Amino acid sequence: MNVFRRGMASVASLKQAGKVVCIGRNYADHITELNSARPQQPFFFLKPTSSLLLPGAGPVIRPRGVDLHYEVELALILGKDVKDLDANDEKGALDAIENYALSIDMTARNIQNEAKKKGLPWSIAKGFDTFLPIGAPIAKAAIPDPHAIELYLTVNGEPRQADSTELMLFRIPRILSDISRVMALRKGDIVLTGTPKGVGPVVPGDVMRAGIRVAGRELDDARIEVRVEESTSDYIYAET
Ligand code: MG
Asked: Does any domain span residue 2?
């Protein structure tokens, strides 16, 4: 198969995402580092598709007044509609995935902390434009077991996150099952599976690099490299 054409088709599919559903608190050490409570069921929130930063695009824009954090995550790109999936249907879950991708769930941590305290939604904290850099779609064959790969992220070459997806508290079939019982997942939708420990701030001028290792080998096409820049908009975040 022509690799170039396959890549083009896949990037086009990212633009067709109707929604992006993100699992929160899915790695125990990340829950600890943010002093969050461990969920008894998977919980999730939405990022707008307007926050997507397509493969190779950049920079990530830091709005003024924002403490901007990175969260590296494995993304699932759905190839079919899913509704009321059985949590034990591992084959059904994996069959519903068309491609994997690497993603960074950029988060305005100060806004999120305020929202948590006041019981407000996370839409602002998670939803700014450019807050979802995503890598090129990865063929499923390149990831034989999505629960046994390493995700990593560096800032200016310094290692910040590096953990195996085997540490997920809720695995992919359970995640897709729980989401699909609330909202139908459609072909093209993107699901983020949570971030491991090591989240932290980035500032204008920083360069984030993220990747996936399968059995210790880097997936070259999966990589993200993106710079952070300060917003030139007159928007400044102010406490709600
Ligand atoms: Mg996240």
From this structure: no
- Per-residue CA distances from 35 to 116, 131, 196 (Å): 12, 23, 14
Looking at residue 1, what is its pLDDT?
Answer: 40
**Domain residue limits at 79:** 10-230
CA of 3 to the centre of ligand 1 (A): 30
CATH number reported for the structural domain that contains residue 53 in this entry: 3.90.850.10
> Ligand 1 mean position to 2 CA, how many Å?
34
Q: Report the separation in Å between the CA atom of 45 and the middle of ligand 1, taken as the mean of its atom positions.
A: 9
Domain total in the chain: 1
Given the DSSP bridges, would you call strands 132-133 and 52-53 parallel, antiparallel or unpaired? parallel
Cα–Cα distances in angstroms (integers) from residue 42 to residues 15, 56, 134, 171, 194, in the given order: 26, 31, 22, 9, 10
Instruction: Please indicate, yes or no, if residue 59 is contained in any of the structural domains.
Output: yes
Mean pLDDT score, 169-186: 98
Measure 102 CA to ligand 1 centroid, in angstroms. 12
Could you tell me the distance, in angstroms and rounded to a whole number, from the CA of residue 154 to the centre of ligand 1? 16
pLDDT exceeds cutoff 80 at 2: no
15-70 tens-digit pLDDT: 889 999 999 999 999 999 999 999 999 999 999 999 999 999 999 999 999 999 99
Q: Which tokens go with 221?
A: 């096409």
183 Cα: distance to centroid of ligand 1 (angstroms): 19
